[in-house]
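Journal club prep — side note

Before the paper discussion, L.F. wants everyone to see what a predicted structure for a comparable chain looks like in token form. Sequence:
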Amino acid sequence: PSPSDRKVQAEVLAQAAGWHAMLIKSPPFQLQAYLPEFSKQESALTVYIEGDGFAWSSSSTPSADPTPRDPLALKLALAQTQGNSAYLGRPCQYVEAEHTGCPQRYWTHARFAPEVIAATHEAIHVLKQRFGANRLTLVGYSGGAAVAALLAAERDDVELLVTVAGNLDHAAWTALHDIDPLVDSLNPAAFAEKLVKLPQVHFVGGKDVVIPPSLAYQWPQAFRGPENSNIHVIVSFSHHCCWAENWQHLYSEALYK
């Protein structure tokens, strides 16, 4: 599907749940958010951060537009039934990257660059104001988990970090898959000690070949927790299946861990 078709898919999912689009100007990016049309003002907000999307057309060729073909983090956000939630896309997603000149580096080697994290901080500030929130749960899917962890390491309003099939050590990940390192990206593993006291839940699919359990068990101890207690392996799940269908239960499990 074309970038426009992929954006329409997200719009249809959001509208079916009574959500609407909000484009947040957060220089040097415009970040696409989706949030409920109507919501109560509450002190707590859960923000879902999308994965890397359609970053590569093949193992050696970057795509022309990273808008996700399957916006899984959006599906997770829409599946949450407890409290306020919002969805945040990544730089260059949903904004016709090829035509608006959004640099390709932001879905390849600079996907977790300092300016990406700074812009996401600003977008979350806008969302907090919209909901009247002062406390956050951050949920990151795949590469969005890296963004969520890097945000949490710098903020004092995050109460819980949840990742789903998350990439929390991209140096180990690129080495495992023998792909080019993300040379212009911050690595969450280098900031893990800042999160040692933060409650965390990291869901990993037992059939995930992108972020396999063996990789998660190599993360810094500050992520894994005592005796790997922060890591929850769902044996039958893969990188994409079957998180959204089961999210209501899994989210409750994370909240009451």
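L.F.'s comment for the group: The first helix runs from residue 3 to 16. Keep this in mind when we get to the figures.
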